[in-house]
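Lesson 9: reading folded outputs for more than one chain in a single document. The general rule is that every protein is listed as its sequence immediately followed by its structure tokens, and records are never interleaved. Here is the first one.
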Amino acid sequence: MVYVKEKARPFAHGGAGRLLIALMTVTLLNAGGSLACEQIKTSQELRGVVTAEEFVPGEILVWFNDDLSPADVDEAVERTGGEIIRRSDVTPTRVVISVPEGKEDHFVEEYRKMKEVRAAGKNQVLKALPEDAAAPGPGAEGGE
């Protein structure tokens, strides 16, 4: 009798091999999930530095649907009110619109009602660090 040694196929017989793959997948997903949670946490911490009172008066930010052309965006702004004062070079459907001071909330709500708009809000002032945590400048004690 001749015995032929079969090639080893580590996961061919199910059971333990499949369990090992499942455990590895869950472990990797959990690691990725915790990284995502850290990113969200960091973003939320930065967002806490912004207050509702800190925005550029007379300006709102509007993000139109990406399938619109710049001409479509211009037409929608003309129809709704305001004037485009800046447009993103990277995403031309994201614009800063000049509106009458004191009417920012009204215009934000009007733009949010439009089916062509993904998001709209006041042009908020963001600070990377709270003012008391900022690094000292040149000539200040501890600065260069």
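And here is the second record, again sequence then tokens.
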Amino acid sequence: MKRNYHLLREAEKALGDSERIMAHTFPLLQEPKLLLSSLEGIFLSFSYAMGYVLMRSSERDEEYSHLSFDDKVQLFKEKANDEELMNVHYLDTIKEIKEILLLHKRSPVEFSRKDKLVICSEDYGMKIIHAKDVTHYLEIARAFLKTIREVIQKQKGQSKESENR
């Protein structure tokens, strides 16, 4: 069980790091490549949070860190038994961030324009990342973590009720 809370703390830390980048470092330096650092932190936060939910929902103490991200998402869809956690908006955001990071990894060219980062694909397609997009992803990730905490509190309340009967 301690491992579970460790994952939730890591998710909070990764998200906090991304928030600091967007609130302090990016406005000061105006370096669009910092947007990628923030996106990586948001992605990491989602991944840790999903791992936490998976481990919490498991009857035995299974380790999910060896799974690929796609496998984690699929397992999350199967095991997360609360509708609030299964909000399609969360899962779409996770996939969107993953695709941006993969595009960046495979990109032959990327460059900065004012406060935007432009990532080019091999077929000359472009993905433009704005600071407001990253801020939007931060808000969704923060809502995801808040939902996880609320679901946990609700489950704790239900288990205490059943113990008192």
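What the second record shows: Residues 38 and 121 are 21 Å apart (CA to CA).
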